[in-house]
Design brief:
Among the domains are: 2-114, no CATH class; 286-320 and 333-618, Kinesin, CATH 3.40.850. 54% of the residues lie in helices and 15% in strands. The chain contains 13 helices and 14 strands. Helix 1 (2-41) crosses helix 3, helix 1 (2-41) crosses helix 4 (75-83) and helix 1 runs antiparallel to helix 6. The structure holds adenosine-5'-triphosphate. Residues 1-10 have a biased composition (Polar residues).
């Protein structure tokens, strides 16, 4: 509204300039006189050109009197200044400059001619003209004012509208700003989306590349698939053919399995029959058998006093020429004949010897206790027979028996048998037991005692019982036993000759399918030298040794004789040897004795003794053995 007012005022000067000028003229008529007087005192002002232009040539003096009212402006500006302030300003100026009642008629600037002072009528007429003129102007001013008011109202209306419009625009602007924010967010979103799009496009490009590769691969695989399909169809027809053939084969397998089962039964029955027959043969051969083996002479020559029959391998004669007191012609030949289950001459190989006892090894696997002794004087070949040397040809009964044992056990596994073997090796010296498989410190060797268990099994306390499952393991144990024996002896004291060594292999077999178990022991004994010494020749330790040896060997003979005579009491406990071998001797065992003899003439006496002892054993018939089966 204020603006509108200002605007309306500011427009006024153009139109009001006339009014101002007119008013000034009117004022001049009333008030200019004192001013004129005053003006006369002052120097002539600059020529009021504008006033002259508006008022005309007739009113120059008026212009000069008016000049002080617009003192600070030029003539042209006087009109402007007069027009600038409101009409009120002009009145004020008039009041201050024109004294009351002092008006001097003066020619007005209204263009009227200057009247004389007396021309009052003219002056009234002029005044009336002027009034009319002013009234007209007032009218037009009022009209104009009304117009202006209307215009102002319009403007105000317009302003209100514009204000509303402004509010609306502001609201719109706020909306726009909000929209802008939204758009910025959308822009961010869009940029992100564009980034994502670029990423996706890159990924897409990669995927396209991969797809191309895959497509190529797929095509090649398609080709491959086709090939495979063709192969498959071929294979399918082959499979169909094979399935038919498989069905036939299965049928055959079924019938074969039935046959196999039948054959297994037959084999088992055959095996049991074989065992029975085998045992019958062994019994027919005698449950105690004696083999004689003659050691070759060291120089390889022939022994004169030992005579072997060329046709009979069971006979042996010991011949001795007894000198006659009446000269050589009277010498007599004395011959001692012996008969054993088998006699091996000096040329008999280790294999030949073993062949004869291998059947007994088989008996051990069949569940019979087997005991094999080597008896004879020192140097007669007992150790050679039992252990032998290290080569294939010279190895003795123990390694060969073990070899056969594992071989046969393996074969029997196919028939459902499972065997476990436990080895022990003990030395009996001076009626003391010594573990030959001991590997601990020499000074910490434990004491051993023979114990009989509730089930009649005999065991030795603190003895090494080593589970073995291969021939090599047993050979290693034999080597260890040899080493243990050699450390105990000195050059002066060949202890091995005066001690018994007992190798025992406990055998446990089972056939789970047939629910059969068997248990037996294979004893292989290298006895001490059987030579008799004259009491006068043996002193101290030697005497003790001799006594122990003689005692145990003679006790062995006594036990065997008692068994043969089926005596009620068998004196097993009289010596450590018989006590240890209790399970392997007697009714439930098969016993084999090797009597080893030396071929040298000076061993004649000992040879004769050995053969006599062996003969006595050979005459024994120990009761029928029964297999330890459960
Ligand atoms: N049948 C044989 N063929 C070849 N050599 C043999 C035979 N028997 C024994 N010998 C040899 O004779 C020697 C004595 O044999 P061996 O040691 O076996 O006798 P031994 O009776 O065990 O003596 P010891 O009682 O002292 O142990 C050894 O060198 C051995 O190799």
């Amino acid at each position: 509204m204020s603006n509108a007012k200002e605007n309306s005022v500011s427009r006024l000067p153009v139109m009001s300039s006339k009014r101002v000028l007119t008013a000034s003229n009117s004022l001049e008529n009333h008030d200019c006189q004192p001013a004129q007087k005053k003006m006369r005192k002052e120097p002539e002002p600059t020529k009021p050109k504008a006033a002259a232009t508006i008022i005309g040539n007739r009113r120059p003096p008026v212009a000069t009197t008016r000049a002080p009212a617009a003192k600070s402006v030029r003539v042209a500006g006087a009109a402007t200044v007069a027009a600038g302030p409101s009409r009120g300003v002009l009145k004020q100026a008039t009041a201050s400059t024109v004294p009351k009642g002092g008006a001097v008629p003066k020619a007005g600037g209204g263009g009227g001619t200057r009247r004389h002072a007396w021309d009052l009528k003219g002056k009234v007429s002029d005044m009336e003209g002027k009034i009319a003129n002013y009234q007209g102007k007032l009218k037009s001013a009022s009209l104009e004012n009304e117009q202006l008011k209307g215009s102002m109202a319009q403007k105000q209306l317009r302003a209100a509208e514009m204000e509303q419009e402004l509010q609306r625009l502001r609201a719109q602007l706020s909306d726009y700003e909000k929209n802008q924010q939204t758009l910025l967010a959308v822009q961010d979103e869009l940029e992100k989306t564009i980034t994502d799009k670029n990423t996706i496009q890159r990924d897409l490009a990669n995927l396209k590349a991969k797809f191309t590769v895959m497509e190529t691969l797929r095509e090649s695989q398609e080709v491959e698939l086709q090939t495979l399909k063709m192969k498959l169809s071929v294979q399918e027809s082959t499979v169909a053919r094979l399935q038919t053939s498989l069905r036939d084969s299965e049928e055959q397998v079924r019938s074969l399995m039935e046959t196999v089962a039948q054959q297994k039964d037959d084999i088992h029955a055959g095996e049991m029959e074989r065992r029975q027959l085998h045992n019958t043969i062994q019994e027919l051969k005698g449950n105690i058998r004696v083999f004689c083996r003659v050691r070759p002479l060291v120089d390889g020559g022939l022994s004169e006093h030992i005579q072997l029959s060329a046709n009979d391998n069971k006979m042996l004669a010991l011949a001795k020429t007894e000198e006659s007191h009446v000269g050589r012609a009277g010498d007599t030949q004395k011959s001692y004949n012996f008969s054993f289950d088998r006699v091996f001459g000096p040329k008999a190989s280790q294999q030949e010897v073993f062949d004869e006892i291998s059947l007994l090894v088989q008996s051990a696997l069949d569940g019979y206790n087997v005991c094999c002794f080597a008896y004879g004087q020192t140097g007669s070949g007992k150790t050679f027979t039992m252990e032998g040397d290290d080569t294939e040809e010279t190895m003795g009964v123990i390694p060969r028996a073990v070899q056969q044992m594992f071989k046969t056990a393996k074969r029997l596994e196919e028939q459902g048998w499972q065997f476990t073997f436990t080895a022990s090796f003990v030395e009996i010296y001076n009626e003391n037991l010594r573990d030959l498989l001991y590997t601990g410190k020499a000074n910490k060797r434990p004491e051993h005692e023979i114990r009989k268990l509730a089930n009649n099994d005999v065991t030795v306390t603190n003895l090494t019982y080593q589970k073995v499952c291969s021939e090599d393991q047993v050979l290693n144990l034999i080597a260890l036993a040899k080493q243990n024996r050699s450390t105990a002896q000195t050059n002066l004291n060949d202890r091995s000759s005066r001690s018994h060594s007992v190798f025992q292999l406990a055998i446990e077999g089972g056939n789970a399918g047939r629910d059969i178990n068997c248990k037996s022991t294979l004893c292989l004994v290298d006895l001490a030298g059987s030579e008799r010494m004259l009491k006068s020749q043996s002193q101290g330790e030697r005497f003790k040794e001799m006594t122990a040896i003689n005692s145990s060997l003679s006790n062995l003979g006594i036990v065997i004789t008692a068994l043969a005579n089926k005596e009620n009491y068998i004196p097993y406990r009289n010596s450590k040897l018989t006590y240890l071998l209790q399970g392997c001797l007697g009714g439930n065992s098969k016993t084999l004795m090797f009597v080893n003899i030396s071929p040298e003439p000076d061993s004649f006496g000992e040879t004769l003794n050995s053969l006599r002892f062996a003969s006595k054993v050979n005459d024994c018939v120990i009761g029928t053995a029964t297999a330890n089966r459960k």
